[in-house]
UniProtKB/TrEMBL annotation, chain C:
GO aspect biological process, one term: peptide transport
SMART domains: AAA
Gene Ontology MF, one: ATP hydrolysis activity
One cellular component term from this protein's GO annotations in UniProt: plasma membrane
Gene3D superfamilies: P-loop containing nucleotide triphosphate hydrolases
Entries under Pfam families matching the protein: ABC_tran, oligo_HPY
Alphabetical UniProt keywords: ATP-binding, Cell inner membrane, Cell membrane, Membrane, Nucleotide-binding, Translocase, Transport
Similarity comment: family membership: Belongs to the ABC transporter superfamily.
Topological relation to the membrane, as annotated: Peripheral membrane protein
Regions that span the bilayer: none
UniProt name for this protein: Glutathione ABC transporter ATP-binding protein
Automatic annotation (TrEMBL), chain D:
Subcellular compartments: Cell membrane
Matching Pfam families: BPD_transp_1, BPD_transp_1_N
GO cellular component, one term: plasma membrane
Upper taxonomic lineage: Bacteria, Bacillati, Chloroflexota, Candidatus Thermofontia, Candidatus Thermofonsia Clade 1
Residues annotated as domain ABC transmembrane type-1: 95-304
Highest taxon listed in the record's lineage: Bacteria
Main location: membrane
Name used for this protein in its record: Peptide ABC transporter permease
Family assignment from sequence similarity: Belongs to the binding-protein-dependent transport system permease family.
Organism: Candidatus Thermofonsia Clade 1 bacterium
Amino acid sequence: MRATARQRQTQPLQIVRLSMARRGRLLRRLWHDAPLSSIGALGVIGFLLLALIGPYLTPYNPTANSLSERNQPPSLAHPFGTDNFGRDILSRIIYGGRNIFALTGSATLIAVGLGLVIGLYVGYLGGWLDQIVMRLADALLALPSLLLTLVLLGALGNSRFTVLVAIVILYVPIVTRVVRSVVLDVKTKAYIEAAEIGGESRFHILFREIMPAVLPTLAVEGALRFSYAIFLVASLGFLGLGVARPEPDWGLMVSEARDWYALSPHILFFPSAAIVVLVVCVNLMADGLRRLLEYSEAD
Amino acid sequence: MRSTAAYVLQYWFFYLKGGRAHTPLHEQFLRQIAMCSSSRKISRRRFLSLSAAAAAGALLYKTSPTFAQASDRSAQGLRPQTARTGVIRVGWEAVKRLDPAFASSDSEIAFLTAVYDYLVDVTTTDAVSPRLAESWRVSEDGRQYTFKLVPNAKFHDGKPLTAEDVLYSFNRLRDPAVGSPKISLFDNLEQISAPDDLTVVFTLKTTEPDFIYSITDNSAVIVRAGATNFETEFIGTGPFKVERYIPEDRTLFVANEDYWQSGLPYAAGMEHRYLDSNAAIEALRGGELDVVLRMPNARFVALQNDPNLQTVTFPTSGHDALRLRMDMPPGNDPRVRKALKMATNREEINAFAQLGLGSPGRDAPIGAYFADYFDPDSPLPPYDPDGARALLAEAGYPDLTFDLFVPNTGTRPDFAVVIKDQWAKAGITVNINLVDEATYYGDDGWLEVQLGITGWGARPSPQQYLDFSLKSDGKWNESRIADPELDALIVKAGTSVDRAERIAAYKAIQRKLAEDGPLIIPYFFPTVGAARKEWQFEGGFTVQAFPGRTTFTRARQA
Amino acid sequence: MESPILAIENLTVAYRLQGVWLDAVREVSLSVNAAQTYGIVGESGSGKSTLVQAVMGYLSANGAVRQGKIHFEGEDWLNAPRRRREQIWGARLSMVPQDPLSALNPALTIGEQIAELVRRHAHLSRRAAHARAVEMLQRVKLPDPEGVARRYPHQISGGQQQRALIAMALASPELRLLVLDEPTTSLDVTTEAAILDLFAELQDSHRAATLFVTHNLGVVARMCQRVAVLYAGEVMEDAPTITLYSMALHPYTRLLLRAVPRIGDPRPLQAIPGRIPSLRQRPSGCVFAPRCAAAIELCHAQKPPLERAVEGHLVRCHRWREIAAGSLRLEEASAELKRREMQQAEIAFFEQLFSGEQNGAQATVMRADHVRVQYGVRGLLGRLLGQKPPFRAVDDVSMRVLRGKTLGLVGESGSGKTTFARSLIGLIAIESGEAHLLDMPLRGRPRQRAKATLKAMQMIFQHPEESLNPYRTIGQTLRRPLMTLSGMSRAEANRAAAELLRAVSLPADYLSRFPSELSGGEKQRVAIARAFAAQPALILCDEPVSSLDVSVQAAILNLLAQLQQQHQVAYLLISHDLAVVSYLADYIAVIYRGQLVERGTAESFFMPPHHPYTEALLASIPLPDPKARMRRIRLTDDQPSNIVPSGCRFHPRCPRYLGDICRTQAPPWQRDRQGGYYRCHIPPDELAALQTEPEG
Amino acid sequence: MISYLTRRVLFFGLTLLLTSLIVFAAVRLLPGDVETAVLGRGAEPAARAALRQELGLDLPFLIQYANWLGKFLRGDWGNSYALKAPIMPLVMQRLGNSMRLALIAMLIAVPLSVLLGLLAGLSEGKPFDIAFSLISLILVGIPEFVMGIILINVVALEWKLLPPSASVPPDASFSEALPRLILPSLTAAAVLLAYIGRLTRVGVIAELRRTYVRTAVLKGLRWRQVVFKHVLRNALLPTITVIAISFGWLISGLVVIENVFAYPGLGRLMVFAIQQRDLPLILGGVMIAVTAFALANLIADLLYAALNPRIRLS
């Protein structure tokens, strides 16, 4: 019996490729049932848009210092005020958002992609390979994530690339596990067997037949991983690791603002709030995704 | 007119402040910055400290062979004895090496300062004061230093202090087998001898007027002859005994009842707590700590407003130096070096990185702290970014790009951030590489990079900076400067027994460095400290230039 | 006449879905009297579960009664407060649910789950309640009731779980109404028969009324005195059981009865085309009109009322009078409909597909010799990891399948029949023995097999829901084998896929649809089309209709029969349902615990002598005929165990157990007079004599 | 059950072994050579070589690993390079401190979160549930360091209710230490609370939809009985696992929290060790953290198995 508690079987979520009309219906239903989730999703899209086009909207250079404008409270010119270098906090948050999406987002994507491929293969092939990979994943998962990241940062040097590598190393086993559990369920389905006896290649079975069933679960998992990664990078920034000054990184901004909050609390408030709001939005979005999948399953 | 965000903020202010109405702190703070950065007025207290230093210096360097005697010795024993009370809690970063030969950080030195005694000490004004040596004398030719030891000093294990211990302590620092990084301090030492149990004689190879400062070095504590196990046995003659050392957490000290300076310390004990500066400041504000001596300037500025705290700042000779290697292009071109100086606005950097608390730097490691040597009129090129751009173009570097390597500690990153911005106005691109400090210095990478910022701790004499980093054969000649004229000036400044000659040499060095040096030194660190008002400090709350040297023997709980 | 226990008047129940109320049950009226067993029969989507929920007074959160009344023992049940309901539930009104495992709390013992009900209503002490629970378990004929009371649900078999739930439902002495919600659907046929026996017996001992909800016409015929036929939320016909089965007045009822395969009846089954309209698409006229062969304009325009044909016989049809009078011949009408359907099928297409292979001298398509299959082969690591000990699911099975013929393989779940088929096609490894397909050895996983081997054998799976990839269009699904196995280009494959759809009577525009947009029957048609795409010589049909509704089942069976006739393809038909097997098969083999116990031609199969296991299977089938006499041969539940019994594997359950010989010696194959073989110690004549004796 | 038990214990050992290999390899990759770390800059080449030999750095990686593992298992964890102290007592004392913090956080978070999660799950869609979901969502979104800073500034420095730092004196009794532990525990508990609470809520909702609940209701049981006897028993089973998982999270979270509050725990020691490139200390600390985490998981698994008859009796 493999149903140990930790290996929670993730049921494959039956999302079916949908016609536009049906998609619209599901979205309306989501809006109706869970407006918060929709708001969360919109929030994430908003942050993404801001990160993409925000830099063209803000008149300030996020790393340009200005002695005459330091520590200014929020005003019309600087909606979020300025920091101890006179840098516009809103601009820094926007550029920092870029960092979040570029670094955290791409790390999550890579981890999800790798985890997907590994999970598909080991889940489908099973056997010794599966055992070895899963034991290895167990071992990696037994390491508290922040400690592992710290060790890696120490080992590979403190750079953005290392943070990326660390996130990937952290998340690949988790994603692999999730994908594998779905694959284990899907691969016993008759349509997979039908494909096998139809002489299909392994590639076709893995990526055309099985993968679509994994994607919805993966989307939810990816969203959650993303929010954890934001946390992780922020924590690293706070501990003074990862992204280097003067790059506008949210965690780093919080860390730096710690010296200043007694004098100018807004320097601490806005980046903290940005982290909280984005993480909450991502979580809400993940929740909404899950609901959408449940709908299409029940539909 | 008020945006929604402003409302949110207002609420946040209120929330943080527990809902009390108050004057917005940041305004006070801005006013303060404005004062520091725009006016160069020297505060009264600062003025006093400067003149005191000058007086002490004059006293010390008299060439007459009379014994120098410190004034504060008279204070000892006059004060009525009261029961020792209270444990003074001081926040430090964690200690690692407690072997005097290797100790280097503030916290480590603070530990040594508590447990051991120096032969002679430095005051906050760079004067040399007696400690285990109750008096000393310099020979006519300046090559012999004779120290008289106090007769009643005892080690914590009861053994009386003798000249043998002093010999052992210094010989240990000089011993290549021990491998202390301080070994070069004593290169010029020919021999140490002990004519009797309470007399020690240092004989130099050549004259070295600043040699007395080597005796005051952080590492030069007097240990028990034969002691080797410094990481677990802490036997000194100092005012405090170690009761318990808990690595990476704290050290508990108790007052040394048999301390030779009878009556000291006033406190019953001392506790060093090892925590990062943010936590330390919060602990100080919350009454969990009594003293914090090193902290980010912004935190210090905020603490100045705390009614429960007394604060103090002193200037030091410590500084951050931005330096360019001169043995490779573009640093080998004097026009480039000049252009970089022109592109730099030092006041602005000081205002940003030190919040104006630092004293201004003029691209030489000699600052106002060394009042006698400092030349406020050294010919710095004026701030002129456009001129710098033109000059660079002329030199053939119209689009100069640098990788700037910066240790990730202190205000060095802030310095780098401002420089990046300032130089951009002169068309220079700077890519900042923040490096973990331990890695940066540990792997000697700092000596190799083309452009870097190096932090230099406070030293009692400018000579060390010059010898180490600006002589062509200097141990840490990071800029690879090789200027025979400069070398000669440094030697002269370091060996001449003629005071006027030395002052002239130092000023010449400053002039050279200002005109064409590889360094940009925009500020000298302040040393700052904050203590709870529950503690009174005899003679006022003072902090040593190297905060770890601050003693708390005269702190008394109110 | 005494007042009914349960009276439902004009009940309409609706669900709120995305802000719209949709009726699931509409204008249903019926009343159940004391000691009466009232059957409600309906296919999936007929609203029978909703009706059950409404009767229990426990609708799901988004459901509501829109109109009508329910009286329970004369009390307004719909408006009863929660407190009152709690007093009645379990005490006077009980339910036996469909899926016993999920209906039991996995974390509590069986005994405790029954005892807590007793404690709640009878206010007995803990000890007395436990005693009562054990007593109830005994009443439902559970062996070792004390032991069962101490066990957790997962430790006992499905049949035992269902007995425990029955014990729970009957635990209250004041019980007035028992609602049975498909109580045997998830059980094996032999277990089902035993449970039905139990109900029949218990009905005599308690005076409670019973509402028996099922989709199985055979079960209803056996158990109920009166039946209501539910379709799309409405009662179509409501009559005493005997009347309904002999003189149904509604076209739907009639077709339903004709759609059930009967053993020994070779006539083609009557399929009902189309499917039950979804809640959103309920027609405004007669809800059955879209599928009705006899529908006239009036039917589409106007909803027929529920009329009383004779006393006690209600029917909802505009044309019941014509049907009653015999002037409307439904069979002819639907034959007409079927012809229309068949025109779509491009018979020529298949002929063309198979034309290249007409050198059919070789009669044997597939032969298997001494095939053994083992599950859970474990190595050192496996043992360390505590995997289950290996289990031989198929043990020494040999058989031949002839060109164009169907071999039916029958057995209970877990008998190894599916495992055998899967081992042939390579989804599980053959441990020993060998199998050949058209002289090509069947060895290794499908990936390791030659294209020709793959092409010659295909499979139809049990669950249509699972046999099509929900993420791929029908076109993509059908195109793959054409391209991979038959080497067609994409364009050719597209054309051929459309042809295939037509051959299974589906419109070509289904190519762009996703499986979720198809009904179960349509999905199974697509699965059949896929199996035929590679032009195989043999198709393994693994329970091809067991998860389909009765009306759809018939159409699929007909399609299979018709395609076989046209293309001389051989079938290995696996089913637990002897009626289904008898309809299609030319030869029948019975498998028990991995071994064949009987084989023979279909004609001789239903005549004695039978292997005692076959005999029990035959006796278990509920026939859709209330007048049919049941032979009472019942098997005890199969214990869920991996230990293979010694001697004859069937001996622990055998109704004709002889003694030590059965326990110690493996029985020999015996040949009966009709040319069938069975594996038993009892000689043919003796066995035949035993089995033709009339039941006492 | 016996086979299940042995299997879990076996996996536990295997996981630790693999983890140690991974950590050992990662630590060996750390830049900055060991000799410099131990001997300081400017050490003689001969001394360096001697040290290399003494530490066994010349040997192939796997032999180094085997040597280290052998010593480690015998309790010889070596001395910290940076602190010059034996590692085992140091790490153990820190582990004890961290555990104390974790324990208080758990004691605050677990009962409260289970209760709130249960109430929210039972009132799905009602105002209480919505409020709970929103608040827990926001709590989940607040990084520990932000939460810590807020608590320090508001509770400790403005309201002066509790000390701002968690720097506990050595040998302090539990009651003396407690006030200093409350703020960091609260910080850790906040996220934990939200996390466990949300999962309990989901578990309760999922169990409420299970068929056996209908069976229980239709037995006529009181709603209270249904909830506490039937639903909770099943809904809390996965929560046990969740608590074990959050224990792992806690170890990570404590790294930040201990730094914010200057608490002498294992997490702070680890950050210090990594900054100092103190290889033996990193290895010792990480291994003990991993062991604690894996042990928590093992205990949770066994507890889960013991409470779940489906596993206990299979």
